[in-house]
Specification:
Blueprint (H helix, E strand, L loop, with lengths): L4 H8 L2 E4 L7 E13 L2 E12 L7 H7 L12 E5 L9 E6 L2 H5 L7 H15 L2 E6 L3 H4 L2 H12 L4 H7 L10 H10 L4 E4 L3 H9 L4 E5 L10 H11 L12
Parallel strand pairs: 5-6, 5-7, 7-8
Antiparallel strand pairs: 1-2, 2-3, 3-4, 4-6
Amino acid sequence: MMISNDVKNILTNKMTILKDEHKNDICLVGPVTLPVQLDDEVVTFQWYTWLPLKGIPSEKEKVLESLATLDLAEHQQSSVLVYGDFANAKEAYIRMHSICHTGDIFGSKRCDCGFQLRQSMKMIVEKGSGALFYLANHEGRGIGLFSKSLAYILQQEGYDTVEANHALGFPDDTRSYEEAIRVLKGLRQQPVTLITNNPRKIDALKQHGLTIHDHIPLWGDISEYNQFYLETKVEKAGHIKNSELIIAN
């Protein structure tokens, strides 16, 4: 079915092609007005999503004409929630949040991801400006949902989260932030404050050219279910230690 010119005119006005010297172009779509329930308050964010144009012509109309044949439902796409005058605000908070199907959606207590997702959104709103990047290919620190389920089985047998990934043949962390940083630079040119407990993430972002003004640790929802997981993050992944977290000898 052909897309009408009227529809193309509406959609192309909300599309931006982010060019890359290596021809790894990205199509950014938005903003879409998105009212979100945060506790007892409805907060309005501006929502963007993006698509790497691998094998797709870097033209807005060509992207639209390709949609029906791309089978995008089989492949997750990342997105970003933007709050306030993000492009121009003097200070802004950023959260690069790795998708966590079990924690973000089901509310699993085996990690602190769901807490960090919602708390980051609240912190951004309180700050008055910021963006939460939701990175769809970061499940299980980059190993994917199916592999993560196998890693969870190993963790139930006593492996820690790093050992479980290694046992399945994966490195500690395979996540890439290159696409997200390119999108960020398309939305804001000024430095940002990063919400994270992970110094490695800060280093990775800096290596890709992100200008970081500061960073803020985010701990909470520590329980008997995720204590060992969080201790492993501190001991083996170098996460910033928190006073609430008692590291086993």
